[in-house]
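Retro notes, item 3 of 5
We never archived the inputs for the flavin-adenine dinucleotide complex last cycle. Fixing that now. Sequence and ligand:
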Amino acid sequence: MMKFILNQEIMEIDAPLGSSTLDFIRNKGVKGVKEACHEGECLSCAVLLGEIRGNTIVYNTIASCILPLGEIIGKHVVTIEGLNQEALNPIQHALVDEGASQCGFCTPGFVISLTGFFLDEKLEKKDILTAIEGNLCRCGAYAAITRAAEMLANKISVEGKKFEERIQILIGAGILPPYFVNIPSQLIKLEESNKTKLHEEGTYVAGATDLLVQHESLSDPVFLSEKELTGIWVDNGYIHIGAMTSMEDIRISEELNAIYNIKDHLTLVSALPIRHQATIGGNLVNASPIGDLIIYFLALDAEISLINDKDGRIIKLRDFYKDYKKMDMKEGEIIEWLRISNKEKLFNFEKVSKRKHMDIASVNSAISFDLNNNKIQNVHLSAGGLAPVPKYMENTSSFLENKEISADVIKEAVSIADSEVTPIDDVRGTAKYKRLLLRQLIYAHFITLFPDLEVSL
Ligand SMILES: Cc1cc2nc3c(=O)[nH]c(=O)nc-3n(C[C@H](O)[C@H](O)[C@H](O)COP(=O)(O)OP(=O)(O)OC[C@H]3O[C@@H](n4cnc5c(N)ncnc54)[C@H](O)[C@@H]3O)c2cc1C
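Structure as it came back at the time:
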């Protein structure tokens, strides 16, 4: 029987591994974790998920509604019940004092996300609002919530502190109950007892942020987290990204940020808890025509490694997409990693959606090229939301190759791009609107990269 820790208690998972953690926890009578959208959109079901990584424990805020039970084996799941103490803790106090808890339905989720902020070694004081960016308050008490959050970030400092010291400070401040000090040793023991191999045939599951939105439960899950597919490493002139690497780990990667501004670009992709859970492999194979990471890496001329039990092959990402959700992927193959050259290029990513943050793109686009004697070389342009597949803009890229940067060249490129796409009317906008966005985004690439260039739109 598979086990995990729910707050202070070691629990056995006696439900299908492909079902939702939220449903499991609530069925066990732990009702502080709330159900609302069941699509990862509102975080009323937020939990902290703690796991051993190397020689430390990492806690992330996660949407438990789209977290399959198979992903919590051997981990620590924390709900509001696991944070409650005799009196209100400082986070709960701050929310009450600022009038930030009105109907109260979203409050447990906010407390979890704010606790997640203090537990996350990668977040700084200025990131306090990022920690709650995915939490919805139906009463609209955002001004009060923001005040409470900023007050807490000013009052309690754990910046630069490593896990053990951080836990001690947070217990001292009353944010965490004392039992948290015992969790690491309990997790190590659980890791030993859970060493059973799960089965190998069925639906591959990475972060499940697509799969558990589409299905209430997964009938035959094969959890890719069991395979060694995580990490970002430089080898032989390439930056490799393991398929199970989370969007957030990609966003903050030192290797990638050394050459691209991915830290800012990927803030436009979902909210922090989804970025913790969602993987690049899932984004690539979900094959959404507006998948943000696909568009990003198409323009960086990425290659992917596909493997099965016996062998593997490397192909260009742009050759992977054949038709709507149809890919060059054989039965039993999985994506192992994606790689891009580690040589810096001029690069820009743009995304337009109904809201600036936490929304699916209407149209997104990215471009990369070298500039030699004012000539555009090795250019790759991509655009999403304009075709049945995430579109590598082959004709426009070929046209731009070896051209000198000028307003006329960009205008002509825009016209070629327009002839290369086949958008349709849908909830994200009319075909006409999407064509207009493509034009604007291509201009935006050049205006961003060459602020002094005069282009009359
Ligand atoms: C609230 C919310 C907001 C979102 N916002 C955005 C956004 O702003 N931009 C965006 O692009 N997407 C967004 N998404 C979509 C989603 O998060 C991404 O597509 C995500 O990257 C999918 O990754 P995953 O690991 O969760 O995939 P999963 O759901 O686990 O899997 C998706 C598909 O990929 C397959 N798969 C996964 N990994 C592999 C592999 N290594 N090899 C072979 N097959 C594999 C699975 O079998 C499945 O078919 C959002 C989703 C939610 C719920």
